[in-house]
Specification:
The chain is mostly helical. The protein folds into 2 domains: about 90 residues, no CATH class; about 70 residues. It contains 7 helices and no strands. Helix 2 packs antiparallel against helix 3 and helix 3 crosses helix 4. The protein is rod-shaped and about 90 Å long.
Length: about 180
């Protein structure tokens, strides 16, 4: 999935140029036909806007915003598992830390003078589980942040382009 979060799949320049040319030529049916064949974000949003053209420009804007939000949310859902792992992993590491410390206290309690080797094993469990939790969380949250920023950046740019394309259909707009 990560390889699909690219400009080519969200805001493909050739499709942008084709839509722009067709709109300038007032070939609205051809724009709809073109965008129906495409799977990119820009085509989806423009098609949604044009589908509401009979209801006026404000309806087109609403359709554009709703479809962009829907598609963005769908994209973000595909990477949400990284966020979940990044937030749960430290908790699992902490649970292991607590387990190791409880073991250390039981070692101290049960044997009179504490055996350093037994304590070292329990403290080692605590430290290793903490390290493993952080070792999973940090990369997961880092990748999640990078992917989320990429999605936000590309979809925002595609939305601006969509608005620019559709603005030519606003009553009184210069064409």
């Amino acid at each position: 999935y990560f390889t699909s979060i690219r400009r080519l799949n969200i805001l493909p320049a050739p499709i942008h140029q084709q839509i722009q040319g067709l709109l300038e030529a007032k070939q609205y049916r051809e724009v709809i036909n073109l965008t129906e064949k495409q799977g990119d974000f820009l085509s989806y949003v423009v098609r949604a806007a044009l589908g509401e053209a009979p209801h006026g420009y404000p309806a087109m804007e609403r359709a554009m915003e709703e479809s962009a939000e829907e598609r963005t949310t769908k994209m973000l859902r595909h990477i949400e598992w990284l966020n979940l792992i990044g937030n749960v992993a430290p908790m699992l590491g902490l649970m292991g830390t607590v387990w190791g410390m409880i073991g250390a206290f039981f070692t101290i309690k049960g044997s009179g003078p504490a055996d350093p080797a037994a304590l070292a094993g329990d403290i080692g469990i605590a430290l290793v589980t903490t390290l493993l939790g952080l070792g999973v969380a940090i990369p997961s949250l880092s990748i999640y942040a990078i992917m989320r920023n990429r999605i936000d950046s590309l979809t925002s740019e595609a939305m601006l382009v969509s608005q620019e394309l559709i603005s030519t259909l606003r009553p009184g707009a210069k064409r």
